[in-house]
Design brief:
The complex is a heterodimer of chains A (170) and B (352). Chain A has 170 residues and is mostly helical. In chain A, 71% of the residues lie in helices and 0% in strands. Chain A is built from eight helices and no strands. In chain A, helix 2 (27-44) packs across helix 3, helix 3 (54-73) crosses helix 7 (139-146) and helix 7 (139-146) packs across helix 8 (150-168). Chain A is globular and about 50 Å long. By secondary structure, chain B is an alpha+beta fold. In chain B, helix 12 (206-212) packs across helix 14 (316-325). The longest helix of chain B is centred in the N-terminal third of the chain and has 24 residues, at 83-106. Chain B is rod-shaped, with a radius of gyration of 59 Å. The chains are: A mainly alpha (170), B alpha+beta (352).
């Protein structure tokens, strides 16, 4: 299976960066880890036979590297990071009868709360819910990336979502 | 609690569309009857939507493209650009290079790596025409006989020197000595006293004297030899002395008339202060080949007295050697007492 690295980078630059940022303490660290992940992908690309789905293969490389990096740095849990101002989808996510400026401010605040609650989750719950809700991977793909039974993925995902709902107060 | 967890998992799966139709229908009937369950489902859906929004709002910085750009161009320079990686790589290259150089110097080229033509040429060159022929010595074009002595190849190619079995090293190193039990001074005094022994007496009883008076001094009182033979006394200064007369009757007086067939000739060497005089003569008495140390007294160019100087245990042959030179003419040597040596040469076999 011939896969061009440019194509892989263009398709996975944002997901890998998001995952890196979620499991890093700063943007600089996230940059370094993202670069390392793509270097590993670049090195491993000649051996990629296409037996696994491309997204599964890339996320597997990314997650193994991030986990090893966190173990090396001895960090647990991760700290809360500042969010960006890209809140275009927030109105749809959190419908509110208040006027738009107030709603937007409340939504941004709510997103920060959700992210803070996400970072408080244990790592094995955090990665499952992020791969499903943040990156839209299927249960099967998550099971392959994390090398878990699909039933475990289902249960962890349900518990993670329930924890976040309780933390936010929904 | 277990039931609650199962319901939460079913709600989570319902959001993701993971339930089959049967499970979805059962859950839908529960949701219609349970308001808290509907609120929970709504909360889970908001969590999912919030996380999706979080993912969408995160954009990678532009520097990421610059960092990954070498990979896009096929050159992963970023990792190699790290200082410790560069140093490690440089050290590894140096070590590898030194190792390769040492290995190349120590190893012969692998024949399997050579071409078949080169191998054929090498085999043809290495195969000798006569497998038992010796390779020529690395000598110069100068014939071996003309090469200077001491050259290594001359030593290698020179024939083995012939060793005369008649040259017994033991008598050649034998020296004469005084009478038994006497010191050197006593020996000299005793020899001086023995100088009065008449040559005629010595000639008359050679065998008995030889067995009993070894090392004693013998002398020739006669100043006028009865007859002479042609002889020549030379000095190592290179000037040859004219032939002089040699006593002829000495042989009949001091030695047996039968000559030793194994003796080819003899030389007398007289050691003076600055030079050595020598002459050849025909031994006219029996004596074994060898070298004999003597002291002689010359008077009027003739050896008048001879006595041994060393201390050998058996004096028989010493007396014979002393008698050989008694009366010899050495007129180019001033009168006096000198150290001397008689060299009696063996006769070489005819085939040598």
């Amino acid at each position: 299976m011939a896969v061009d690295f440019d194509e892989i980078y263009e398709r996975f630059r944002r997901p890998v960066w998001r995952l890196a940022r979620r499991f890093s303490e700063s943007d600089e660290e996230a940059l370094d880890t993202t670069q390392e992940v793509f270097l590993r992908v670049w090195r491993g690309l000649p051996g990629f036979r296409g037996e696994a789905k491309l997204s599964t293969w890339v996320f597997q490389i990314a997650w193994n590297h991030f986990r090893a990096h966190r173990r090396k740095m001895g960090r647990q849990p991760l700290t809360v990071k500042e969010g960006t101002n890209d809140d275009r989808d927030l109105v749809d996510v959190a419908p509110d009868p208040r006027p738009d400026p107030e709603r937007r401010a409340a939504a941004v605040e709510m997103l920060d709360v959700v992210e803070a609650a996400l970072r408080e989750l244990p790592e094995h719950y955090q990665i499952v819910v992020w791969l499903r809700d943040g990156e839209d991977l299927s249960y099967r793909e998550i099971a392959n990336v994390l090398d878990l039974p699909i039933g475990t993925v289902r249960s962890r995902l349900a518990r993670a979502r329930a924890s976040l709902r309780q933390a936010v107060g929904w | 609690m277990v039931v609650k967890d199962r319901l939460t998992e079913s709600l989570s799966r319902l959001i993701d569309g993971d339930l089959d139709s049967t499970e979805a229908a059962e859950l839908a009937s529960l949701l219609e009857s349970d308001r808290s369950l509907r609120r929970e489902l709504d909360g889970l859906a908001r969590v999912r939507a919030s996380l999706h929004t979080l993912a969408n709002r995160e954009q990678p910085p532009g520097r990421l493209d610059a960092l990954v750009d070498p990979l896009l161009r096929g050159k992963p320079e970023t990792t190699f650009a790290r200082p410790w990686v560069r140093w490690a790589a440089a050290a590894a290259v140096v070590v590898l290079g030194v190792t390769v150089i040492l290995e190349v110097q120590q190893r012969q080229p692998d024949p399997a790596l050579l071409g078949w033509q080169e191998r054929a040429l090498e085999e043809a060159a290495a195969k000798p025409a006569d497998p038992f022929a010796l390779a020529p010595l690395p000598t110069s074009s100068v014939p071996v006989a003309e090469q200077p002595l001491g050259a290594t190849d001359r030593l290698v190619s020179a024939p083995e020197p012939e060793v005369d079995p008649a040259l017994d090293p033991t008598p050649a190193l034998e020296v004469m000595g005084p009478q038994e039990g006497g010191s050197r001074s006593e020996e000299r005094r005793q020899n001086r006293r023995d100088a009065d022994v008449a040559p005629g007496n010595l000639a008359k009883q050679p065998s008995d004297d030889e067995s009993t008076s070894g090392g004693r001094r013998v002398s020739e009182k006669s100043n006028a030899p009865s007859s002479t033979t042609e002889g020549q006394v030379q000095s190592d200064s290179g000037v040859a002395a004219p032939p002089v007369a040699q006593t002829q009757d000495k042989a009949s007086q001091v030695s047996p008339t039968t000559s030793d067939a194994t003796i080819a000739g003899a030389q007398l060497f007289v050691f003076m202060a600055a030079e050595t005089a020598w002459r050849s003569f025909e031994p006219d008495g029996p004596c074994e080949a060898g070298r004999y140390a003597l002291r002689i007294r010359i008077e009027d160019g003739v050896v008048r007295e001879v006595w041994p100087v060393a201390n050998p245990p058996a004096p028989t042959r010493q007396v014979r050697a002393s008698q050989l030179v008694l009366g010899l003419v050495v007129d180019n040597v001033a009168d006096g007492e000198y150290a001397a040596e008689v060299v009696v040469e063996p006769r070489r076999p005819p085939n040598r």
